[in-house]
Specification:
By secondary structure, the chain is mainly beta. It contains 4 helices and 36 strands. It has helices at about 20, 95-105, 120-125, 260; strands at about 1-5, 35, 40, 50-55, 60, 65, 75-80, 85-90, 135-140, 145-150, 155, 165, 185-190, 195-205, 210-215, 225-230, 240, 245-250, 255, 270-275, 280-285, 295-300, 305-315, 320-325, 350-355, 360-370, 375, 390-395, 405-410, 415-420, 425-430, 430-435, 445-455, 460-465, 475-480, 490. The strands form 9 sheets. Strands 3, 31, 32, 33, 34 and 35 form a 6-stranded antiparallel sheet that branches. Strands 1-30-29-28-27 form a 5-stranded mixed sheet, with no helix packed on it. Strands 2-8-7-4-36 form a 5-stranded antiparallel sheet, with no helix packed on it. The longest helix has 9 residues, at about 95-105.
């Protein structure tokens, strides 16, 4: 590792305590609406727009704990930047399941990742009803704010009030309960649509063979392309990458046994088993398939598990993909407690580059970053194109596994790393890169992130200079409360201030 620059205080050998980390997993029942007045530093006047975040806001239903945070009801946080000020608002997505459980005051649905209805297996047997929890991502596109959960349709929200307006079907192009992934990719210049930007997304319908459906939406939010492809085997796919010509998916080597699910013993996510002796398959699908031809290519590489990718780009007959890889899938056991996870016993996610030769069907891979890392972000202008810089949540320590407490900037050309750490009592969420208006340099802008501060049981909005990452934050905005650890979000240059 070259030229590592670290901004940190004096920190003990272990960079965190379990009790500090656990406090970030408390429910936030209140909904807030206020201007942020407690600020260290100064908000850049050029930073104009809105950061939307999504994640599980409830970790219990009226005192009944859910089994895994991924089963928690979605809560949108909105931070609006305007005229060197910032406004915060949060609101739960009023899904059908959220409203029903709020009225009943108890758990009514089985969760995908282990939450069961009270009453044991007899209360859960043969219950396959899915609760759309709308908790994974939120994006503003085509004049609409959409809360996303990959197993069902999006929810449409009012960007000013965060009021839930209903489910979104894109003029009935999406059918009822049809999945729409929580990991869309924004192509800054879509060659197939007169170089206009477009949103590319997918859905997965798993089975003995899996159907992957690809959607492309124009700037007006209309689905202008929809094509489905069948691939052999069961697919558990959370994320994908795009290039101007391809959509690329990693088919993790897993199997699914539905019997414990049907008998009410296990949740769906607990019926997935990692197969370390099977290869990871890489599925390459043309974004503009020829009529009557699928042209899907499937390549194989060594076994591993991928949740998230950084980016992909084409170089002649080759496609390069940067991804965070794990040795295996961390399984969720029925009697486990996610707050008691043993980080040291699990293998960390590391950043790898995969080089696909589409002509001869071979795959080569090399390690880019051995430090445990997750939740990558890049300049949106470089999505699907060659790029130099990436920003990613990381552990404070260079080796081992631990909660994310730092942000790491990687220069892929020079190899330079810059690390900003919030340890020992800060815990990091997903960074979002925001370009400076009119910027020409790839790293000219800011990195925004929510950091949980265990010392004060509150969350801070961090603004870092993306070009001079090793410096202290430009501004640290102290919220009046904590925001439970979230999942994904996006920034838009649109400004949504309260009336």
């Amino acid at each position: 590792m070259q030229n590592l620059k670290i901004q940190q205080s004096s920190i003990t050998e272990k960079s965190y305590t379990r009790s500090d980390w656990q406090k970030g997993y408390q429910s936030l029942n209140q909904e807030f609406d206020y201007w942020i007045d407690d600020i260290e530093g100064q908000i850049p006047p050029e930073l104009q727009g809105t950061l939307f975040r999504n994640g599980p806001g409830l970790l219990d239903i009226n005192g009944q704990s859910i089994h895994h945070p991924f089963d928690g009801d979605g809560m949108i946080s909105r931070i609006t930047f305007t005229n060197s000020r910032a406004h915060f608002r949060n609101r739960f997505v009023r899904t059908e399941g959220y409203l029903a459980e709020k009225e009943a005051g108890k758990i009514l649905y089985r969760g995908v990742f282990g939450t069961q209805k009270p009453g044991g297996w007899l209360a859960n047997i043969f219950d396959f009803k899915i609760k759309n929890i709308a908790n994974t991502n939120v994006i503003y596109w085509g004049g609409k704010l959409l809360a996303l959960w990959e197993a069902a349709e999006p929810h449409h929200l009012n960007p000013y009030t965060l009021e839930t307006l209903g489910r979104e079907y894109f003029n009935n192009v999406l059918s009822t309960s049809e999945a729409f992934s929580a990991h869309p990719r924004l192509d800054p210049s879509c060659e197939q649509d007169r170089n206009a930007p477009c949103l590319v997304n997918f859905s997965i319908k798993p089975g003995l063979s899996t159907t992957i459906t690809i959607f492309e939406l124009n700037p007006a939010g209309e689905i202008i392309k929809k094509h489905a492809h069948s691939v052999p085997g069961f697919c558990f796919i959370h994320d994908f990458v795009i290039t101007p010509n391809y959509c690329i998916f990693f088919q993790n080597p897993v199997t699914f046994n539905p019997i414990p699910l049907a008998l009410g013993i296990r949740a769906a996510g607990q019926c997935i088993k990692f197969e370390p002796n099977q290869p990871t398959r890489i599925i390459v699908i043309p974004r503009t398939p020829k009529k009557g031809q699928s042209e899907v290519k499937i390549l194989e590489t060594q076994s591993g598990f991928v949740f998230h990718h950084v980016n992909a780009f084409e170089m002649g007959d080759e496609v390069l993909i940067d991804s965070i890889c794990y040795e295996s899938l961390p399984e969720v056991e029925p009697e486990s407690d996610f707050r008691r996870v043993d980080f040291e016993a699990q293998s960390p996610g590391k950043l790898w580059r995969f080089c696909l030769n589409l002509k001869d069907g071979t795959v080569q891979q090399k390690l880019i970053e051995s430090r445990c890392c997750e939740f990558p972000s890049i300049n949106p202008a470089n999505v699907g194109r060659p790029y130099q810089y990436l920003y990613i949540g990381a552990t404070h320590a260079e080796t081992g596994n631990a909660p994310l407490q730092a942000l790491l900037k990687i220069d892929l050309e020079s190899g330079e790393r810059q690390l900003w750490s919030a340890a020992p009592r800060g815990f990091m969420g997903e960074p979002i890169f925001v370009p400076r208006p009119g910027s020409e340099k790839e790293d000219d802008g800011w990195v925004l992130a929510l950091v949980y501060d265990a010392a004060h049981h509150r969350s801070d909005v961090m603004i870092l200079d993306a070009g001079n990452f090793h410096k202290s934050p430009i501004a640290r905005l102290h919220l009046k409360h904590h925001v439970p650890y979230g999942l994904h979000g996006n920034f838009t240059s649109e400004v949504f201030v309260p009336n």
